Batch of 3 targets.
Target 1
Amino acid sequence: MANIGDLNDDAASSLTPDGTSLGRARWTVCAMLFAATSINYMDRQVIALLKPTLEHSIGLTEINYGYIVDAFQIAYAIGLLLAGRLIDKLGTRIGYILVMGVWSFSAMGHALASTVREFAFARFLLGLGEAGNFPAAIKTVAEWFPQNERSFATGILNSGANVGAMLAPAIVPWIALRWGWHAAFLITGLFGVPWILWWFSSYRTPVSRVTAEEEPSASVRWGRLLGFRQAWAFSTAKFLTDPIWYFYLFWLPSYFSSKFDLNLSHLGLPLIIIYNVSALGSIGGGWLPVPFRRLGMSSHHARLTAMLVCACLVVPIYTASSVKSMWSAIALISIAAGAHQGWSANLFTTASDMFPRSAVGSVVGIGGMAGSAGSALFAFFAGHMLQLTHSYATLFGIAASVYLLALVVLCLLAPGLKEVELPA
């Protein structure tokens, strides 16, 4: 079977006027990124689904659970900062294999844990490995896709987060109820192995550029990147909004269990519905700038308008803590989670809009580190808030408001998403 690099070389030499051959190669790459992101999010959600089980088996409390989530988020923050630079240095082909191997091994390692401290250590290692996924994926998109297709491609790969989050509640309870929670960590951790073999045998970094005008730029040091307001705009938006997605990912099973008395065998349906809608939101949000561009907006203003729509759709979630109907809660959270994913697809794309390809991995890593740091703070706050009040009202209230705040900050620090001008 021809590898993807061969497909690209063939496409470059026999390209039709509409770029059909090269287009097929691009979307094959996008499918691989989608699969990797699905595995990434399935592995990280296993512990959230098993939280009620672990409360009985190891005496897990809300505060201790918050600490375990913090271990993941702190490692994720460190890993993102390192992974962005690593991917820029090693390239996407080798770098992706490395980070997938680390996180798959760490995911299986949870099966050996029996105390809160051991789970925290396993989560820390998982966070270090999983941190490499998005820097590698976004850099791959920047290498293969022209600017006007990047948000849509990013939306597709980003929807893998929702598919992974859907696969987990469909698979993990079934495994845990039959073979125990240890087996759930072990089996799901093995899913990364066939992907590594697929990527290693098929993928090559493209030789020819996707568009002639996108010339490569010299590598940029982190210190230089932090001197640009655009880097701070991207990072601040990640700091404010990433914690909300992790709140959904790590606390929704507990929310439905405590509020609507759902056990492990019944948690799957509401979560599968929510993440199905999230997947649609990711793809739809990535596509949303297109009609705005057709109305005459620039690509940058179309992206900001799409982000405004997503931010507004999140606002009704502040009522989720007080609703009496489980289906009303599912509807509110589904819309908010889908809007978050649409927001995220466009926010990720602002990095490649504002920075050259050579710096995209590092910028995404810096922004992801900020998002993970915010998520660690929010996890600490959430664990203590729930232990103290047993209410989700404050947490859903924060979720409802931070997207609009993040959009204001983004527009103030990077008006019009102006492109960074780097010295030759």
Target 2
Amino acid sequence: MFLNAIRLILLAVLVFTCGGCGDGDQTVIRENAEPNAIVTGRVIDSSTLLPVGGAVVTLLCNGTKLTVTTSNSSDPDLAGTFTFFGIVPTASYTGYELTISAPGYAVTYSAVQVQATSDNMPVSVPLGNITLGKPCDVTVIVSDHGIPVQGIVVSASNQYGYGSAITAVTDANGSAVLTGLNQEAFYHIVTAPKYDASGNILYSASSSSSYQPQNSARTISIAVTKAMSGGAIQIIGSNLTGNITTSTTNSLSQTYIKSDSIIRIVFNYPVVLTGSVSATYLNDLVPLSDPDYGKVVTVTTLTGSLDQSGTILTIANSSPYIKNQTYTFIIPVVTTLNGQTRSYNFSTSSPFFVNPVYVTDDSLTGLGPATILKADNFNGTSGATATSTPAQVYVEFPEKVFGTYRVISTKDGTVVTPFSNNTMTIGSFDGTIAYAANSGGADGVVVFKLPIDYFIYLPDNRTGAPSEVTIAFDVMDADGNRFNKTVTLPVQ
């Protein structure tokens, strides 16, 4: 019977044209489009699927609202139905918004598209069954690092952009209750910015979070941070250096200092020291026979002081830092931002990585154009004890270097093996600083061991059986000293 009724309505529209939505209230105008469309539907309960009579259905036409009420008829074909007459078809990229409300149900929103026909013949838009879900209340707790924030506007808007947002304002406990959310809908829940009486922003708006009541707790929390606080301590300047540039590469190294360096760090907020500044290092640049070999040593000769503004920290060491050693600094600083105590993680925080800190060798024994490099397979033998057993080849530098190298060839007795022209980069994590004797090397000195790529394995250089590697280097140390030449190195 419902379909028969629609057919009768369509026939009636052929002989009767409504002048607009709601007897002249219609404001939607489309060229060559007659106000002859019909929008129909049925409203049902989402859980029982039974018709809902007496529901108020509103169709929004560019600001003009058309309202009808669903049928309370005892006829099962008519119960819960609604019809809008004389609707103007819309362009393909626009549409109408349908709102349905009824006692005991959450307000439901949806979009309606009314397509025009090429000949302006009447068009029917059957929306079918539209379900109404039950409402619920959701409590939102707003806090700043655990402290409730009062006076924050909280809103829940339909995830698809339909309808007006449901809003509430937090009380002294930071609590706001959003009333009438549809348990079956999806929402974006956000906080609005908060200003003081002078118009200065106190809290920025929070980003949206997706929320569906039927799959979530009815109490949720939103963390906000005071505006203009930055939210954390940051280092905005330092005399620590981390970029090493050669003619062929720009490699990011560890942060480095000289053995007599005085460190200065600039913070974005005034800070206070909550303890002593110290540093640790792994004591591996000593012979294996040293009783402290392999132990973590704490540096107790450091002093840290803040300037009058509390933003510049100066760290001095009454003893020189150990050259070629890597230090990890412990700097216990905090600041108070908007009543909250914030600390700084020197190991991972950006924009500057303070740890680890490498101590350069800026003495005459460091890298230079005349530096003599050595190749060693660190098998514990050389000279009279040289063996024919191949092992991984390393090149020894007097200190850590950055840059590039290219293996040209190797020689094992009478066999010469040429290599491709691939250039390899020496970065901050390549190679190791070690006491040579700890790895079976021939020299009991501190060296920078760089494993040569391609997994080159060669035996010791022996009388009558040369073992050599030819490599082109273009490297620099942390002080900017450059070594740019091709060398042929016998393997120790």
Target 3
Amino acid sequence: MAGTLRSRSRRNISTTAADSVGDGLGMDSPSSDLEIYSKEVLSSLIADDLPPTPNNFSLYFDRLLEDKSENLRKQIISMLELEESNDAENTIMLEQNLKKGFSSVKNILGVTANLYKNISLMTKILDKRKTELSESKDNNSTAALITSLESDITKLNTILKKQNFQMKTIYDETADIVKSVDNETIFDNQFGVYNKRYLLTKIKQESSLISEFKHKSSLIMIELDKDLKASVQNEKAVMLMTRTIARLLLKTSRRSDTVAHYGNGLFAMLLKHTDIDSAKKASERLTELVSNSNFFLADREILLKISIGITNIDTVYTVEEIVVSAMDGIQQAYVNPDIDFAVSLRNDEAVADKK
């Protein structure tokens, strides 16, 4: 009987699951086609005795969508595209550029090998002609050897100039490819987090999602306290402390958060589905975590300290304005020495919170 029911639920997912989803899961009536479909997918997983893990849900989500009407498919796919970045396309382009780069490097090595061979050949010719000149006592023969030598050197020089030009051309092409690859990277190797380019892309993407689904998200900007940096007066030590901050940011972040290096030791965390109050709580936890971390410089113990600016992701502002707003929060924190974080003044609920 169980097998029959399971087969039936798989064949008639669109009807059986949808009919039972409201009562079986105790949910309110769905307010959108996407909610209806998502609950249908979840009900189908349960009906098939499969755990509703992200992988299984994703598998059923894609599979069941194939049986839906074209209008519904287009509607849901358009929503999903808001969440998707062009990671696959970017990866393909990156791989193509890398392959071009490797090909160019191979060509450079080939031209270099030919240059080496020709230089070695020129050395051998000069040694041979030198021996012939030392053995010759006939002025006419000597003159002929010199003429022959000049001809050999001229020919080799022409070849070397041509190969040198080829190498320069290939080098310039490779440099352009390397620059292109660098511009497409999303990772900051110095601090082990995402880079500025990726951060701005994710903020823009999140703003589009907020515009569609009306949830709340926040951005916080974090940097090593400027007074602490001034008191240390050691560039290498400041760099080590900044790297420690980066590690702590990764340690305290959620999987859905985006941790990135904006530049010059300034970090950012994009907190998805997080309102201002929750962002303040996250900032408080982060400042406490950092303040409990010790840093030793020679025989001196330094307590780490950070300053944080908080702002919301508001769709009426550009990505750049959102970032500037979070930076403004940092400046507000600096104005009041009793606080470590502050909400940007452009937020209606902006107040500086004491620890």
